[in-house]
Design brief:
This protein has about 350 residues and is an alpha/beta fold. It folds into two domains: about 220 residues, Type I PLP-dependent aspartate aminotransferase-like (Major domain) (Aspartate Aminotransferase, domain 2); about 120 residues, Aspartate Aminotransferase, domain 1 (Alpha-Beta Complex). The strands form two sheets. It has a seven-stranded mixed sheet with strand order 1-7-6-5-4-2-3. The radius of gyration is 21 Å and the shape is globular.
């Protein structure tokens, strides 16, 4: 019987570096410093060096990284933030949670926010634009006069920080994944980095003296140690992702029913997402063959029930809406055997014969 191909499997990645992971965990257990401290500081320094950012500030999740940026930049009621309708809900959730209003700019052919649409959406109330590097491909830069924040949760290592700040996620499935949750803010602005560091600890400086209202957005020391052990391997893992993406691209290039992602040498392929005719039939076909898939995302953000009071209706962002009916993510992770990629390609092709 042919073994199944899971959509994601971290076991091979962890097995290859298990001694380093075990040593990192043991070190934290031995010194007992579980919140903040040297482990987090060491990881922040290493992360900044690896990404080319001047400062990295660890946070409890990618969601909290976005929220801390929104709070630090003073977004609030009366402000509008231009963003994409095609992303995970955390992107828009951070905007709404601080009382600001998201304004959606439709996506381009590569599924990131169309820079012309972003520029057209900027108005007198616009406080910033929040770009998403979806699936690991850097977004095109719009010609706007407002600050730009980057949601790089899926795109670590794809490009240096270009906006005022970038949010990373270390959710276990990410290209650099923790064994739990975690995130970080990257920025070249020392004052903003200091503000993020203040807000992640309830705005206290010194302890019990609160100069701002923040939150508990701290990166767990155990996760920082694990991430520090994994970080040196990220370039090799990124190369492995790109190799598997190239294999998919070559195998599906002449299949008219399936459109592969826009090619970009910076793409780090957090996901390999195709646009497929009869997407749901293809997904069922692959599931019957033991191939795991996911849909990112089944509904655009502007049509989510939680945002109904914004007044958006179907047709407001037609490119994103059409994409949500076609997008399907195929298995892709560094330890995925190339032979498994070939099997997935064959199963995809078989659906349309």
């Amino acid at each position: 019987m042919t073994p199944p191909i899971p959509f994601f499997d971290m076991r091979g990645e962890l097995a290859a570096i298990r001694p380093a992971i075990d040593a990192a965990i043991a070190r934290v257990l031995d010194h007992g410093g579980f919140v903040g401290g040297a482990e987090v500081e060491a990881f922040e320094r290493a992360l900044a060096a690896a990404t080319g950012a001047a400062h990295a500030v660890g946070t409890s999740s990618g969601t909290d990284a976005l929220l801390a940026i929104a709070m630090a930049l003073g977004w609030g009621p009366g402000d509008e933030i231009v963003t994409t309708p095609l992303s995970f809900f955390a992107t828009v959730g951070a905007i709404v949670r601080v009382g600001a209003r998201p304004v959606f700019a439709d996506v381009d052919a590569g599924l990131n926010a169309d820079p012309a649409a972003v520029a057209a959406a900027v108005g007198p109330r616009t406080k910033a634009a929040l770009l998403v590097h979806l699936f690991g491909r850097p977004a095109a830069w719009p010609a706007v006069a407002v600050p730009i924040v980057e949601d790089a949760a899926q795109a670590i290592g794809a490009a240096p920080v270009r906006g005022v700040a970038a949010a990373l996620s270390f959710f276990p499935t990410k290209n650099l994944g923790a064994c739990g949750d975690g995130g970080a803010v990257l920025t070249d602005d020392p004052a903003l980095a200091d503000r993020i560091a203040l807000l992640r600890n309830h705005g206290a400086r010194p302890k019990y003296h609160h100069v701002a209202v923040g939150g508990n957005f701290r990166l767990d020391a155990l996760q920082a140690a694990i991430l520090g052990a994994k970080l040196p391997h990220l370039p090799a893992w990124t190369a492995a992702r790109r190799a598997r993406a190239d294999r998919y691209r070559a195998g599906l290039a002449d299949l008219p029913e399936v459109r592969v992602p826009v090619d970009d040498p910076r793409h780090v392929y957090h996901h390999f997402v195709v646009r497929a005719d009869a997407r749901d039939r293809l997904r069922a076909h692959l599931a019957a063959a033991g191939v795991g898939t996911e849909i990112y995302y089944p509904s655009p953000l502007h049509l989510q029930p939680a945002l109904a009071d914004l007044g958006y209706r179907a047709g407001a962002c037609p490119t994103a809406e059409a994409a949500c009916a076609e997008l399907l993510a195929l298995p892709l992770y560094p330890s995925l055997p190339l032979a498994a990629v070939d099997r997935v390609v064959e199963r995809v092709r078989g659906c349309y014969r």
